[in-house]
Amino acid sequence: MIGYFQDLFTNVFTPTVLGRLWEGTQVTAAVTLLAGVFGLLLGLLSALGRMSGIVPLRILAVAYVEFFRGTPLLVQLFILWFGLPTLPFFQWDSAFQAGTTGMSLYAGAYFSEIIRGAFASVPKGQQEAAQVLGLSSFQNFRFVQLPQAIRNAVPALGNQFISLIKDSTLVTVISVQDLLFQADNVVARTFRPFPVYIGIAMVYLVLSNLASLGVNRLEAYYNRPYRAAR
Questions:
Q1: Rounded distance between C-alpha atoms, residue 97 and residue 190, angstroms
Q2: How many Cβ atoms sit within 10 Å of the Cβ of residue 5?
Q3: pLDDT by residue (tens digit) across 188-205?
Q4: Domains along the chain?
Q5: With a threshold of 0.85, does the pTM exceed it?
């Protein structure tokens, strides 16, 4: 058993390999964070579009959400990476750019429904009371609807973000040099798939647990006023 682990760190997890895996971990984190941020912006815009009284905006938002929620992420990545560059005057600067764009569009569709549901959960009576008190539409949105919608949305948004960490493995297929991509290269050189894939599984587990911890902290922060009111 001792010899087995000595062999792992001598022939598999060498300093060079660990450096490559660390680079892959940074790429995975970057793809996930960027997709989370841009996806959140797209989700907010899409949710507002679906709640808008402007029919073209509502139709556009519905089409976006239905397409990206109703088709596999892998197919979406193939369309972006292999399909779009066949069109005239279009070219990606890198696989990372295409992968991040695909993940953002995919995440935004799910975030949109979460955000829309969070706004819908705010009682209508509170909005009507705000109007009676003389608040403008913007003040109603800013001080009445938005704070409650954020609190309602945080748990579901957090869960979706954690799922995004695991979904990010799919960008490997378009040659984004993430953690799984680097692990595949290590396996191809060492022919030791079990320890390598177990190792990166532990890395994904750590990333997911760190994200879960952050979500729990965020939930506690937005729940503080309600605990104080009790």
A1: 30
A2: 11
A3: 998 899 999 999 999 999
A4: 2-229 (1.10.3720.10)
A5: yes
